[in-house]
Specification:
The chain has 277 residues and is of the alpha/beta class. The protein contains 9 helices and 10 strands. Helix 2 runs parallel beside helix 3.
Length: 277
């Protein structure tokens, strides 16, 4: 099982110096990847805060802009979005940005995607929230097409998009009911958030069964969860339970106040947790 960690592209830690120091610490470790979020911004008051977004997110950096910074700051580690909200973005512009990031990073980008949920963001963009599922599917199909040929068709216009997209793996975020069928149809893996191992196991079994029936190869599962690092034995047991449930990538998520603390957390995951697994 691969091990990864979040890197916050928002809040007081979202400065060039802070982010570079954290990214370099991860790059110099044995961690497989670092993951970051996507939000445009927030209204003064969120109407339906179902995911518990903190009130003090402050600065929020664009994830694809941040990815180009990581491409320059790092040499080895992979990095990706958890998740990029596809309905917010024009398909051809998104494909161009992804092709650029892949070229500059030598193919190290990981594309976690989702349909989004926050009504206020959709409203600010003038994008239909009701169409978010269809728009997500259309964008994924377009990205697949861009990876097959430089000559594409966008809005009825033949268009040469160069460099051709070196398509990153696509991980589908969302609830099992929607995300598993979408993963089987057009993704490389599922990205669940917050599930415990015993909750995930039946969904992973369903994903594997549906994938086999569709003639797909093995589909990955990128699970995001905060490990109890203050209790070494409990953290190792929880990580092992995720591995045994069929998780292929485990992303530890937590806050941190300094690059030194971030580096310490990275070493715990890459050292104590990885060694025990």
């Amino acid at each position: 099982m691969k091990l990864a960690m979040n890197i916050r592209n928002w809040g007081p830690t979202a400065t060039p110096e802070f982010l570079r120091a954290c990214a370099e610490a991860a790059d110099q470790s044995g961690l497989d990847a670092i993951w970051f979020n996507d939000h445009l911004g927030f209204p003064p008051k969120i109407e339906n805060n179902e995911y518990g977004i903190p009130d003090d997110m402050g600065t929020i950096l664009d994830p694809l802009g941040f990815a180009t910074y990581l491409a320059a700051c790092t040499q080895r580690i992979k990095f990706g979005t958890a998740v990029l909200i596809l309905p917010y973005r024009p398909p051809i512009v998104t494909a161009k940005l992804l092709a650029t990031i892949q070229l500059l990073s030598h193919g190290r980008f990981l594309l976690g995607v989702g349909p989004g949920y926050l009504e206020e963001e959709f409203r600010a963009l003038g994008v239909s929230r009701k169409r978010r599922g269809r728009d997500t599917d259309d964008m994924i199909d377009f990205l697949h097409a861009c990876a097959e040929s430089e000559l594409i068709e966008a809005n009825g216009q033949p268009f040469v998009l160069s460099p051709k997209l070196d398509r990153p793996p696509i991980y589908i975020g969302g609830s099992p009911k929607v995300a598993i069928p979408r993963t089987v149809r057009c993704g490389d893996g599922w990205m669940p958030v917050g599930f415990l191992p015993d909750e995930l196991a039946p969904h992973i079994a369903e994903l594997n069964q549906r994938g086999a029936e569709a003639g797909r190869g093995p589909l990955e599962v990128v699970a995001m969860k905060t490990l109890p690092l203050n209790d070494r034995a409990a953290a190792i047991d929880l990580a092992a339970a995720y591995r045994d449930a069929g998780v292929s990538h485990l992303v530890h998520t937590q806050g941190y106040d300094s690059p030194a603390q971030y580096a310490e957390i990275v070493q715990q995951i890459d050292g104590e947790i990885r060694t025990a697994l």
